[in-house]
Amino acid sequence: MAASKPVRKARAALVVLFLLLLGMGGGLAYGVQQGHAQWAPLLALDLEGGTQMVLSPQVESGEEIDDDQLNQAVEIIRQRVDGTGVAEAEIAVQGAENVVVGMPGVPDEQTRELIQASAAMEFRSVLEVRRDPVLAQRAELQALLESPELDDEQRAVVEEQLEALSEDPEQEQLEDEEAPASPEEAHAELLETLSSQMAPDDFAEIEDHLTEELAAEFLDYECRPDLTIEDREAQDPDLPLVTCNPDTGDIFILGPVDVDGDYINDASWGTEQGPTGMATGYYETVIHFDSTGTELFREASTRLYGYPQGTPQNRFAIVLDGHVIVAPNMLSPITDGNARVTGEYTDAEARNLAEQLRYGSLPISFQIESEQQISATLGAEQLRMGLLAGIIGLLLTAGYAIYQYRSLALAVTIPSLVVVALITWWALSLLGWSDGYRLSMAGIAGLILSIGLTADSFVVYFERVKDELREGRSLAGAVEAGWSRARRTILASKAVNVLAAVVLYMVAVGNVRGFAFTLGLTALIDVILVFLFTHPLMQLLARRKFFASGKRFSGLSAQELGVDVLYKGAGRFARSNVVYSDQAAAAVGAGENVDTENDAAPATDVPTAEPRSAAADRKAELPDIPEEEWARMTIAERRKARREVELARREAEPARKEAEPASSSSSESTEGDQR
Amino acid sequence: MAAGFAKAGNQLYTGERSYPFVQRSNLWFIIAALLLVASIAIPFFRGGFNFGIEFTGGSEFTISQTENTDISIGEDAVAEVSGQEATVTNIAESTIRVQTEQLDDEQTLEVGQALQEGYGVGADQVSSTFIGPVWGEHITQQMVIGLVVFLVLVTLYMAFYFRTWKMSVAAIGGLGFVVVVTQGIYSATGFEVTPSAIIGFLTILSYALYDTMVVFDKIRENLAPLQEQKDQTFTERVNLAINQTLVRSVNTSVVGILPVGSILFIGAWLLGAGTLRDIALALFTGIIVGTIATIFVQAPLYARMRRGDADIRSHTEEVLALRQERIQDSGIEQITFSGTPLNSQGQPVAFPPLPEPEAEEPEHEDLEVLDWDAVLAPETPESSGGEQR
Question: Which residue intervals make up region (Disordered) (chain A) (predicted)?
């Protein structure tokens, strides 16, 4: 038997859902197998134990902080916290301008200070530079890896090299043959180089600071992307400094601070123009100093310009939070306080530099607005209770659904809840893998609440189907017609839920954010579920005799529809007569009375189409229309079809009208209203 | 009983049974207004709300799984370290909460230590929370922004979806009722107001609107063919829609409240105060208020806003005038609030056909000689066409 169109569609939808589940489960299984993911969602600190701090940014001058500056600040905190060795710290901007820091355990005093302290930006002149060969090579490989021209094979080779590099840095170190043997040697070498290359005045100024320790530090300096708080505190603006650029592997000795970041007024970026005014295709960053900064920078740049191009002494290092972010050559003295930094930058690089500079103009420190330390015991207890609440909620909802909808609930609602639970669970786990999403207590509350909202989609849908049955449709027809209306309502109301969840998510800070997230997520999953599972399932079930004939406890029996009273005797009124919500449906009876002998038949005590009466009658009347198509037709379409046939017949035998008494037992709507 | 419920559902659907939600709207509105006034007045009499520590600032310690639940231990521990008076409560079985004024880092550690010793628990059983003085202010500000943004977006969305700003305004007006009454309940009962409660509170808005959307959708559906028929008035059709969705509204509230109730139970009795209880309590209150508001405030409000429109008024007049003629000698005893005629046994019947046959189709003559009792209500000439044979 060829499947009817709704059945085919239903099967297709179920296949799509199956593929979706397979994809999610398979993806997760892959992640678990690779060790990147885990089957259960990651847990937030209030369930796992740990500390969560909500910080608010503080600036001295009371200036406004913009998003970019805040993001830079978060980036800096992240590097610092990583540097302390705290694993799995999470730092994010939430709400308008709060920074939320979460970490396992209780942070010590030092970590707290690191988080709260602002990061300074400084401009220092470069005295000497050397290249950490390992880091430099790694940086090169990394850059190569990002280049789009690489094919997969080459990429694999590069990745291999990178790995080898990080596994065995010592070996590479040995190749650095030029390195001086001892600190004394290095010190002597440094003094010699600088005294020969620098202007006597400049050298005299810093000579005292060029100690053996400095030389030794320079020699042994290991460039790490993170600095400890001691390192950072040791940086004195009046003294030379040994530091590096973690991105390039360059290690510098820098002079005392020439210009402080505070004197930056603003920074911008744009396309670079060559000397002829033609665009070079690269981007540049422009620093704008305020009046004091202009003055200081003019002096410094004039001094640096005095050194030959390409020597270390000609370079100017921009230091942010203890690290050099860029150290350009000085091409000309800058007298107007607008310095252009060029260097074959891409749009993103130039923009990032500009943002770092803008942050440097307004160092942000943080104040702890709230701090929560959850003990692991309490966390575990909360998790257990949350799950318990979820199970109770699920059981209660399922129980109520069964009470209301009988086996319809068993066949549709319960499996739907199971599927939705599975999808949600996997989605949360996948999000934990891809985005580090962590389930919080509030998130669990959102999930539990969504049980009710999901069940409500079924309530809307089932009530619609019941309404359509009361209008006198067959179950298959009622499912289609009820769906077309319920679908709109479900989508519209889910949209409100999603809208609320998105707005809440945007404004909420801290743990309560998880509530908005799960609420929105489950609303979306719910829509997927209703379209790909609940409705297709109903379409298939509608063709089962148990439901279609409205057996007892099917949830669709006459008694459960509340229409039994209609069939107790003759002379009752057809419901479709007094239902006005749908013009077409109201006319159902009028269009469909076919068989006058049918009215007293007990078969009609079910308000669904009884296959042996209605379908047979229908076939006799309209032999041209196949069964499947009929099931899909709306009442209005069926009526029209009937009328066409009727008109044709009437033309053929005009006398029939008198012969046949007007009657109104609608087999389709099954009202036994004939005396 | 489910069958009874379903039967009631069917009767509500046909209009055989009908509650005068729209017709008695004056009464509902008076009650609603009284509730509103009371809700606004209560905070003044009771001196505001019971704000949680998140709004007042301070430090809070939670000792879980302790066998010793003596309150004085906590009070002594805090007094020793900082000399402050602490509020110590036994919020759930074997869980103690200690609230103090703001402590600095060092004091926090010391109090934590003292509590561990006092209650004889390990370090992993004491949790602490510190809330700065501006935090509550900050949250409030964020939530107000959220509220405003949500209301604006939702107003636009509903106006767009229903293509009528009056539904949108009625829905939002009803939301105002939900908001004010819920805050009144919070003030009257002294429920603690925390950020979790507020986020729950904002969720109620979406929930209340969700409910309203479903009812308004049905209203819109019932009103679509309003002008093509002369049987019911505008008011009756709106009322029918509310009655038709009543079963769904009740079911929705129940399935909504069951899970929330389970969170509330766990949160309040087993875990003590916290995120779960605060969210659940706000939702629990809000779902009930929201469902009631949809039925008694938002839908009737819309009906009243539209009722005065010229087209509606003329239609109503026409229907009522026709009805006078039509129900004479027809055996119709009564017409329900949903515009369904009932005969002397209280059974729903069809309206008799319109007095003047409007159609030129000859079949209409047959229609009139028929006993209307036996005809399936052709409402328009078009729909009666196929009925003949």
Answer: 165-185, 591-629, 641-675
Are the Cβ atoms of B387 and A112 closer than 8 angstroms? no
pTM: 0.68
The reply to whether A125 and A114 lie within a common domain is: no
State whether B191 and B100 are in the same domain: no
Of chain A, the percentage scoring pLDDT greater than 70 comes to 73
User: Cβ of A460 and B62 within 8 Å?
Assistant: no
For residues B149 and B236, state if they share a domain.
yes
Instruction: Tell me which residue of A400, A370, A530, A516 sits closest to A449, measured CA to CA.
Output: A516
Distance, CA of B269 to chain centre:
26
Average pLDDT of chain A to the nearest whole number? 74
Identify all chain A residues contacting B154, using CB atoms and an 8 Å cutoff.
496, 499-500
Residue A547 CA to residue A248 CA, distance in Å, equals: 71
Asked whether A440 and A511 are in contact (CB, 8 A), the reply is yes
Give the pLDDT confidence of B291-305 residue by residue, as tens digits.
Answer: 889 889 988 999 888
Name the more confident of B76 and A15.
Answer: A15
Asked if B65 and A377 count as a contact pair (C-beta separation under 8 A), the reply is yes
Asked whether residue B242 falls in the same domain as residue B174, the answer is yes
Q: How many CB atoms lie within 10 A of CB A649?
A: 12
**Between B3, B376, B388, which is nearest A577 by CB?**
B376
> In this structure, are B142 and B34 located in the same domain?
yes
Residues A153 and A222 in one domain: yes
Domain boundary among A329, A345, A371: A371
Q: How far is B258 from chain A (nearest CA, A)?
A: 6
Q: What's the total number of domains in chain B? A: 2
Q: How far is the CA of A662 from the CAs of A404, A567, A596, A654, B97, in angstroms?
A: 40, 21, 9, 15, 80
B387 contacts on A by Cβ (under 8 Å)? 590-591, 593, 662, 664
What CATH number has the domain bearing residue A509? 1.20.1640.10
CB A481 within 8 A of CB B206: no
Within this chain, do residues B124 and B155 fall inside the same structural domain, yes or no?
A: no
ipTM score: 0.77
Pairing of strands B87-92, B95-100: antiparallel
User: Quick one: B74 and B34 in the same domain?
Assistant: no
Strands A42-43 and A438-439: parallel
Phi first, then psi, for residue A370 (nearest 5°) are: -150, 150
pLDDT tops 60 at residue B372: no
**Count of domains observed in chain A:** 3
pLDDT for the residue A555: 66
For residue B90, what are the domain limits? 58-131
